[in-house]
Amino acid sequence: MISDKTIFKISKLFRLQWEPAQNAHVLLYPEGMVKLNDSAGEIMSRIDGEKNLNQIIGDIESHFKTEGLRDDVVSFIEIALNQGWIKSEVE
User: Fold this and answer.
1) Which of these, 81, 28, 17, lies nearest to 53 by C-alpha position?
2) What does the pLDDT average to over 78-89?
3) Nearest to 27 by CA among 47, 10, 9
4) What Cα–Cα distance (Å) separates residue 27 from each residue in 30, 47, 48, 82?
5) Dihedrals φ, ψ of 27, to 5°?
6) Torsion angle defined by CA atoms of residues 22, 24, 28 and 33, in that order, rounded to the nearest 10 degrees
7) What pLDDT does 90 receive?
8) Which of 2, 22, 33, 76 has its CA 20 to 30 A from that of 11?
9) CA 5 to chain centre
10) CA 1: distance to chain centroid?
11) pTM of the prediction?
12) What is the maximum span of the chain, computed from C-alpha positions, in angstroms?
């Protein structure tokens, strides 16, 4: 269950980086690479093991000067959790 206080970190098997050749954020892992779209890259770049869900959403909404991104962020985080890209812990 994801709550507003849930903190996320990138799984140890993965490394997030900007890849100029792909012009995108990518997740590197021993068997290959996952190219992230712009939205996924923005979310993943804020997952640092310190910010909770509310802080991630607030940071993105502030950066893009918009509101109402919660459902999209939560949907992506659920996918990332299911893929094993990130881990969660409650604050």
Assistant:
1) 81
2) 96
3) 10
4) 10, 13, 14, 15
5) -105, 120
6) -50
7) 74
8) 22
9) 15
10) 16
11) 0.93
12) 37
- In contact, 73 and 86? CB cutoff 8 Å: no
Closest alpha carbon to 67 in 79, 57, 75, 54: 57
Cβ proximity of 1 and 77 under 8 Å: no
- Full DSSP string of 9-41: EE-TT-EEEEETTTTEEEEEETTEEEE--HHHH
Burial (CB count within 10 angstroms: exposed 0-12, middle 13-18, buried 19+), residue 23: exposed
CB 21 within 8 A of CB 38: no
Give the span between the Cα atoms of 12 and 87, in whole angstroms: 9
Neighbours of 89 (CB within 10 A): 11
* Distance of alpha carbon 25 from alpha carbon 33, whole angstroms: 10
pLDDT exceeds 70 at position 91: no
Contact of 10 with 80, CB cutoff 8 Å: no
